[in-house]
Give the backbone structure.
Amino acid sequence: QTKNNKKINRKNKKQLFEYWLQLPWERSILTNENLLKLHKTMSENEDKKITTKNSSPTTKTTPPPKQLNNPKGPPYSHPVYKKIAAANGRINRMSKSQVVDALEYLKLNPKGSLEVLQKRLKSHTKKQHFLENDFTEEEKKYTDFYIVIDFEATCEKENPKGYQHEIIEFPAVLVDADTLEVVSEFHSYCRPLTNPILSKFCRDLTGITQLTVESSSTFETVLNRFDKWLKDQVTPDQKFVIVTDGPWDIDRFLKTQCKMSKMEIPHYFQRWVNVRKHFNNFYKIHQVNVEQMLQCLGTEFVGRQHSGIDDSRNIARIMIELIKDGCQVIINETFR
């Protein structure tokens, strides 16, 4: 590394990382060249802020009103946000029955916990205020498809120190970002090599039998099959993002498995959407698993828990409800 790169990595590592996460998903590798470009952009922005802060005008002037549909103006300066804040305050003081009545009147989904229902009503109210004030936030299509994945791996009741998990089930659910419908699925079991015999705990937990894994292909073959399925579903001019429940599927299971199989991790797995993190931040509900998230949304888990394909389908259902309620489901995880 050069001296400049070392300085950048020390001083602005966190800021650069956060800025990088906002880039298009295709830029999966943060090269030294990109670091320099990002650092230069951030430095120029900081210089502008300092110049503005230090410049004290001799006379106070009233700034001209911002145009409603001007995406370049600071959006939160518009008076519509004061109305939205006031509406949110009223919604916070409503009881659950009052929120349910309001949602039913608006012909919106009235099922879910109080936190979910309040957020749903707030999102609808915000949209209505924007329409009434002829104000629209600049929206850019983020992706064409979401690919929801939930691996199952070998395990023991008490995993010994240094235990290496091997992926034994590889499911994927393809969701169209426009229609929010499941349009395709990929599902395959994998034969483990390091731990070829499944523990009783693993068999009982996942429902996967010893015969199933013994008659399956190795992970390397299944990953190549998945990659082919992916290319059949998504054209080169379309975008997609990987979606999981938490960081473990990619950051632990896939990383470990690819290392054991002596394979490179495909570029599209290097950044992904953590649905649980979005759920926590959007609804302000924390420490919940897939079943509990579904309960908060007023529904139940469908299928068998810890079945990879059933878990993936239910995670997709959670993601779809998040998007319907106004959450911007974007990449929020990367390799640690």
User: Anything to note?
Assistant: DSSP finds 13 helices and seven strands in the chain. The domain at 13-21+75-137 is CATH 1.10.720.30 (Transcription Termination Factor Rho, Rna-binding Domain; Chain A, Domain 1). The two ends are 20 Å apart (CA to CA). The beta strands are 145-148, 152-153, 167-176, 182-189, 240-244, 271-274, 333-334.
